[in-house]
Sequence to fold (1223 residues):
Amino acid sequence: MPSSSPTRLRRALPRVRVTRRRVTAGAVVLVVLVGLVGWAVWPAPVTYRVEDRMIQVKTGPAGDRSVTLDTRLYVPKAADAAHPVPAVLLAHGFGGTKLDSASDAEALASRGYEVLAWTAEGFGRSTGQIHLDSPDWEVKDAKDLVDWLARRPEVSKDGPADPRVAVVGGSYGGGLSLLLAAYDQRVDAIVPSITWNDLARSFLPDAGGGGPATGVFKKQWAGLFFGSGGSGGSGGTLGAAAGGALGGGTGAGAGVSGSAQCGRFAVDVCQAYLSMATTGRPTAQALDLLRRSSPASVIDRIKAPTLLIQGEADSLFPLSEADANAKGIAANGTPVRVAWFTGGHDGGQGPQSDQDRTRFLTAQWLDYYLARKGPKPGTSFTYSRITGIDASGDGLVAAGFDVADYPGTTGAGQAQVPVAGPAQQIANPPNGTPAAVSSLAGVGGALGAASGVTLEVPGQHADFYSEPLSRATDVTGAPTIQVEAASPTGEAVLFVKLYDIDANGQATLPNGLVAPVRLTGLPTSIDGATPVTVTLPAIVRRFEQGHRLRITVATSDQAYSTPATPTVYTVAVRGPVTLPSAPGTPIQTPSVIWRYVLAGLVVVLVIAVGAAVIVGRRRLRRRVKTEEGYVQTPLVVRGLRKEYADGFVAVSKVDFVVARNTVVGLLGPNGAGKTTTLRVLMGLTYPTAGDVLVFGQPLKPGAPVLSRVGALVEGPGFLPHLSGYANLQLYWKATGRPADEARFDEALDIAGLGDAVYRKVKTYSHGMKQRLAIAQAMLGLPELLVLDEPTDGLDPPQIAEMRRVLRRYATDGRAVLVSSHLLAEVEQTCTDVVVMHKGQIVAAGPVADIVGDSPTVQLDVSDVDLAGEVLGKLGVVRSVASSGANGLVVDLDGTPRAEVVAALVNAGIGVDRVVPRRRLEDAFLALVGGDTKASGER
Amino acid sequence: MTVIESYRPTRTFTFATEFRRQASRRRTQLALGFMVVLPLIILIAFELPSSDNRGNGGRRGSFSSLVDLATAGGLNFALFTVFVSASFLLIVVVALFHGDTVASEASWGSLRYLLAIPVPRGRLLGVKLAVSLAYSALAMVLLLATALAAGTARYGWHPLRSTIAGDIPSGDALLRLLGIMGYLAVSLLVVAGLAFLLSVTTDAPLGAVGGAVLLQILSSILDQITALGAIRSFLPSHFAEAWLGLLSTPIQTDNLVRGCISGLAYGAVFFGLAWWRFLRKDVVS
Fold:
């Protein structure tokens, strides 16, 4: 039966029926999902409160100058005088404010520390001037803050006016933490990161071993520092560039302003910078000022256990600064631990694995030395190496390593790789322009570390290559090389770099780090030159097999001040490059756990699939209990009921039997429940109640006994792109039975498609498909043939032929069940009939009994009233009922029709038509009669 | 005699039968054919004289070098072909093979005749799934093999060049390429499972295929919204590009592993639901 388009649409869409079970299941799934997601993103409850206040401190060389510091205090809610907690002073980077390290502060406060963050004097809303962590100013400020903490009742104390306190900070804040620990013995632990040991050396380095007095001025970084502090309001540039290491800038404090030239810098600092930046050489005062701001000057006083965290991508405070701090502090017998990570002033915070590691180390350090809980931290040295670009994001990936003893930048072991090349002449450009580019201060991470964009100016550099490496070589520490140079002026500023050259000649300068050297007393000819050992910047890198090393000696670098006079130097390198290494054990990242999860998942899935297959197979093999009484009966339907989930009852109660050698017609109007009954019978739908026995076996979806049934239900179903013949072949293949059982020839005879059977099914008419479907149902001559509306789409001769076929089929013990809504078809085809209406059986029995001449006859006469009288007088009829204007339905009760017609004609009544009625039709009309609604519309 | 002697439930509807049935379909032939044609189209496109000046402007990012290096050798060409196919083409192909398989039978009406043979429902699904998986795998193998063959014939057999890991020797690179295909296959199980689930739920093949692709697109869009934070890890497409980790040295396995977990877990859930649904379903189409 053709379905209307809304019906088709409804079928095309997934059917969603709301039942209590589904609502419950859906709700459970929803709750679990929401719970999981919520758990994943739910913020941890805040366990501290935040207090902002301005604190006035007395500072200056005489301690008589008032400075107001902008502070923020994080107080754990659980802390009070009865339950005091240790405190942490959290210092920010240059150009930043107390808000920079808010996330670190919150993390520490959540761990139960009282955290005091403040804006250093000269920055943000704090008053005062920038003295570069001067012991007379910033360090005194911090001492006053320690006093202030000592007065807080909820801070635990080691003695009167001695709070239990640690100092944590990066860069400018890191320098302060070291200096404060040296000047104030009340400090119990410090965690300085990416900071300096000697500020003079940091800004005036000389990798040839010379002191800062003759160092090469690091003008780019110095200028960036001065710029970010000078105006008091432009700190954002530096803060953003250094990835938070120096701190993000905020606007200038209200009402705080400095001079146009020095901004908020103290005059002595300002003068020192101005003279250095002008000449490229430091004055004695400048050196003295920088020295006083350096932990190097007081390193022997530091007794607080120190965790030093230094960045590998840091052209401002390289790894060697932390190395100097570590050695100096360890010399006092103070516990020191060193960790290198892949970020820094150029590289930011580094990948997540690095941040996790440094955070863990910090927490462990503070827990033990400050809160006196947890295991004692080891003194092992940890470092990480960039191993590539994160494929999923745009960050870098680093691998961590653990070395039992800190080897320093000279490494635990050393490898020598020879580099060679003739002595070369290189030009020093006037005023340092054009200059080579190795790193850009603050943004070097993006340029230097990741993509390795470096620029050498032709004619201004000399290259010395090694042979391709025979095996991968790991470098952890500062390589060294001997350089010889000659200069007509007797002096030269050179930049020595170690490049990694891959097989394609692509050159990478690890982290964009260079070693500046100022050589003096040089001969004019290279022959008389004495080799100078140059310590290259400390790096952590693997030089892959097949790569070459290249030592480049250049005359200019845009990050440094170089002599303004144009000169031509002659340079050569002597001997091998010494490559330090520090083999360590890899640190497992927490993500290793996912490998075990994956393995577990695979095992679970394999077991589950295996179990499902075994259970499925066993179920197939399970013997079904046969009802012996019905073994010879093709079909028994008992108390069948089908109720859909939406409550619609398609079949309420159906019982019938199909015996061998019969053609049973299932008769009923559209929607009487015929097709639903057949669907259950084919194992397509699950019955709500009752059962179906085929040859005594209960029929469930997929029951093996279905192999004895052939079916055409709800129209043909073929693969449209294949020929009818191919469709039948494939269908039979799918049964898995031998081809000779199929009886293709007989089936094709019945289909009667001729050569059309080799055409594609999509070219078939409806009738052709119908015939092919009947042929498919008959393949293998099944003992029970079930046909749903088989004559649908067939023309009259074909219908007649089909009747003969079906009658012939129901021999040799076979049986046929035909459903139809056409009376005539059932009458003429079937031996037995079952009439359905509104999902119920209303009549059943042999056609001979039910169909056949009925005692009633319909008469169309010229005068209905008169005819009624005549027939009434005749006395032979049982009842007369009028039907329509000219019609009469007469129960003849055995009287021959001829007699009645004769009587009417004799009475002068014209008889137009005499139609004998049949019992089935009567029954059908009586039952279905005026009610033409289908069962589906009840 | 209670059943036909020659009938065995485990012999019905064999893999070979279903493979032949699907092979006869135009959509199968077209999809597989396209896998062979696509690398050739790309190859021809690379051969056409380029009109734009090959400056370095515009595209940035380290992995865009896959495009620049595509003509460096057969391996690079194959890698490029996989790179451009992975994000959408393979998803559509896998969704097609899995979404169409049961739904199309339902729409033709042939599903009920298969079930009336009777083919046990679990077996029907199992064979359907196995054949769909086989065709999906075949499509991926064809794509890779054609790209490798065409690329090698045109550009020669050279180590795999990449700017992030240096050169990878040919043998190692071939293994990595196979590893990439393997990872893609696992991560595509999400699409396969979803399409298969939709396929047994509806009898509109287009709905099943389109639905699976749409949800995958939705997942990719949500994945772009970084504000979602940790939720994004639960998105089925979150680890779709983790295979790029196989190109770095050393190989980055963290996201590969998590991507495999995601693919297998989602696949298992979707396939499980498909079975649960189909075994209990009233087939009314």
